[in-house]
Amino acid sequence: MRVKSKRGWEIPESQATPESVYANRRAVLRAMGLGAMALAAEAPFATAFAADAPAPDPSAKLYPFKRNNQYKLDRPITDAKYSTDYNNFYEFSTDKELVELAQALPIRPWTIAVDGMVEKPFRIGIDDLLAKMAAYREERLYRHRCVEAWSMAVPWSGFALKEFVALAKPLSGATYLKMVTFMNPDVAPGQSEPLYPWPYVEGLTMAEATNELAFLVTGMYGKPVPKQDGAPLRLAVPWKYGFKSVKSIVKFTFTDKQPRTFWEDLQESEYGFWANVNPAVPHPRWSQATERVIGTDERVPTLMWNGYGDHVAHLYDHLQGERLFA
Ligand code: MTE
Q1: Domains located in the chain, CATH noted
Q2: Which end of the chain is more exposed for a tag (fewer CB within 10 A), N or C?
Q3: For ligand 1, is residue 94 a contact (CB within 6 Å)?
Q4: Confidence of residue 53 (pLDDT cuts 50, 70, 90)
Q5: Ligand 1 pocket, 181 CB below 6 A?
Q6: Residues 239, 242, 243, 246: is their CA dihedral positive or negative?
């Protein structure tokens, strides 16, 4: 049995989950007479899946990847015991403690589809993709800033998204990349909640996707990325709020239309397409000026572009009319 001790930086779900979503979800569930039952139903799942022995990850032998020292942190790396135990992964739970629930996700075989405006659509297994990316595999130290105003510093392993884009061979007319998470309510109890616009979708412009900072993650702390952190393939775009960093991706679609994202669908007034970090632009319900550093008692000032302006600020010079920071 897992024993939970509350840490100083933890906040209740009612504060961390976007409040209107949280309140609305419970109101609707109550109206349906499902509230307590639907929410309590998550507990037996945890027990059932914790008993299953995890299958060995065939990619484990590839790690650690060589660190690219170009990406430096201004703070210590967050201890893995915090960053792999305090997660947002709504497919499994709106609670931060979802490690056991996430273990139900089967990650082999894991096939990734590439379609839309590409020379030739194709599908590729995660281990074949790791082999094709052998020359580009590396570790990067990135800050990770959630829209809920907490942050971590994480050693991600993976490869630059631009190398994956090159492999996909998009047509010149493609201007956006849409990324989609798996859909499997049998293992992800959250996906049975009809109030959420499943599957989780995120998107980048092609200029963002081919920026050197955009990173596809397959590992963390020198090992395959844990399921709760988005195994076997997730995004890391550290100049944006964490919700842009879509987990457990199964499909990449190249398109000339701006994708409608999960959070826009849910609450467009609060969560937009761009979601670039800016301490001067508050969320409608809280300040973004500072952030709680997970695993410590510290609260530190948030940096413009989360500190990555030299890499990305120029991408937005011609987009000043857009809602760039929500
Ligand atoms: N991706 C999917 N598929 N589902 C999610 O609920 N949550 C997002 C993002 N990616 C989410 C997701 C949010 S809000 C954040 S802050 C980060 O994942 C959290 O990543 P972490 O749990 O590895 O810290």
Answers
A1: 18-42+58-314 (3.90.420.10)
A2: N
A3: no
A4: low
A5: yes
A6: positive
Site to substitute for ligand 1 among 229, 237, 243, most atoms within 8 A of C-beta:
243
Residue 74 region by backbone torsions, left for phi larger than 0, else alpha for psi between -120 and 50, else beta: alpha
On the question of pLDDT at 107 being above 70, the answer is yes
Nearest CA to ligand 1 atom 4: 89
Distance, CA 91 to ligand 1 centroid (Å)?
10
Average pLDDT, the chain: 88
CA 250 – CA 257 distance, rounded (Å): 20
More confident residue, 318 or 24: 318
Q: How confident is the model at residue 55 (pLDDT cuts 50, 70, 90)?
A: low
User: d(Cα 146, Cα 239) in Å, to the nearest integer?
Assistant: 11
Q: Are the C-beta atoms of residues 75 and 153 closer than 8 Å to each other?
A: yes
Q: Is the CB of 146 under 6 A from ligand 1?
A: yes
